[in-house]
Amino acid sequence: MVLKKSILYIIIIILILIWLLPIWTSFLAAFKSPEDFINQKFYELPSEFSLIENFKNVFSIYKLHRHFLNSIIYAVAGGTIAIIAASLAGFSIIRLKPKFNFPLFLIIYSGTLFPFQIFLIPLYKMFNTIGLYDTRIGMILFYSAICIPFSLFVYRGFYTTIPREIEEAARLDGCNSFKLYLHIFVPQSIAPTAVIALFQMTWIWNDLLFGMILTRSRSTRPIMIALASMSGPSGGTIIPYAMAGAIFTSIPTILLFILLRKYFIQGMVLQISNE
Questions:
Q1: Domain limits, the chain
Q2: pTM of the model
Q3: In angstroms, rounded to a whole number, what is the distance separating the alpha carbons of residues 91 and 156?
Q4: 147-200: pLDDT as tens digits
Q5: Which of 1, 142, 143, 189 is close enough to 78 for a disulfide, judged by CB 3.0 to 4.6 Å?
């Protein structure tokens, strides 16, 4: 028994070290100066602390902070609109039960069944036609729409677990449908909302493809476009700058997970138990 546990722990430690290796080398590269990165082995510690200088160069040369604001707007606005719309739709489908409620759910959810890349050309043409191309409002509308199907799937599954007795008691106390949603369903939806917020806002933050196709100016392009431009012929190949930029862009998603960690775990447990 002890031997089996020891072997298991050794395997786990090896897997953890393999997983940490690229993260460790990326952090090392971000702390090095360009000269250290060229002259040292990838695993060697830097001869001088250059992270702050690398950050300064990232902001002054690549203007990463401007794109940072765009991505914050898209992630917060797109995620919030998707959460509100999907929670209302989930409540309506499960509790109000309109005609053809299940086919309606399938139509909305079908947006997740196809690769997102198939939407590129129709979206590009539509945005150009109606004047939403290269605008913040256009990107917010797109991100909101693309996040609704999965959000609806989560809310619909969660709302089926809320007992009917609670709804009936609230209606006896004089709650109409909107008050029932606002005062009963919304307060109990913190955990699934945390799961949706973390998944969808992270997806919006990390999006590269749609941000590249649907925008062209620095005032509207998200941060991942700026990060991608730091490598290749147009942006040069200064790896310490690129790694410092990668660390900077990862801060919001890390903070979001830390803030929502408690509710995220509860939401995942609820989703697994529902399935």
A1: 1-49, 50-274
A2: 0.85
A3: 7
A4: 999 999 999 888 988 888 888 888 888 888 888 898 889 998 888 898 899 999
A5: 143
